[in-house]
Amino acid sequence: MTRTKLIAxxxxxxxxxxSTAELDKIIAGAxxxxxxxxxxxxxxxxxxxxxxxxxERSRVAVGAQDAHxxxxxxxxxxxxxxMLKDAxxxxxxxxxxxxxxxxxxxxxxxxxxxxxVIGEGLIAIVCVGETEAERDAGRALDVVGTQLxxxxxxxxxxxxxxxxxxxxxxxxxxxxxxxxxxxxxxxxIRTRLRDQLGAEGEGVRILYGGSxxxxxxxxxxxxxxxxxxxxxxxxxxxxxxxxxxxxV
Length: 248
Ligand SMILES: O=C(CO)COP(=O)(O)O
Fold this sequence. Notes:
This protein is of the alpha/beta class.
């Protein structure tokens, strides 16, 4: 089945008001992209409103990097999916490995966050991926299978869910798995999605993330069941990000 490729940029804790200039370049470059690719930029919370205004009626969607499971209430420092939607976000990354590590987020919390995102009518990008020790121990497929079983909320469909496979050891390291390992993992994720979501699982997009850059994008994006990329460092400038989308 044909799934529209999604090239998503996760800006992590980077970006100030001046970064709007970079977004403008991405928006301008996106006009030249073929219709088989969608672009998404997930800046820090502070820039979502500004970026969403700027990107209105463009080929670039704007998303967030986390959401609290509740809609409102006494949760100092947190931001809800309803607030993100109000600010103009259409997608929300949940369960990124940096949050699973730094904030000790569990599969159950990721599940609740994804449910809140979907409940607001937004698209949840649920991240999964094994550590280097887990891969070395031959447990990568099992670990990701367990994460999927715990993290995907009831009511997930091809329209409201994207899965991002990000091996932890490939993030920000310049190292990537072999295309054979990517193919094996994405096929495994597809099987689990079909098991969990039935026919909808066929249409859910599975992104690869971890040291994606212009020089390796074409090879990674050509792998079966790789339906796009979640890009960190190389998404911060139009110069590095646009060639990844052009490689689709
Ligand atoms: O964590 C990532 C995207 O969410 C990947 O980051 P890098 O592309 O910088 O390796």
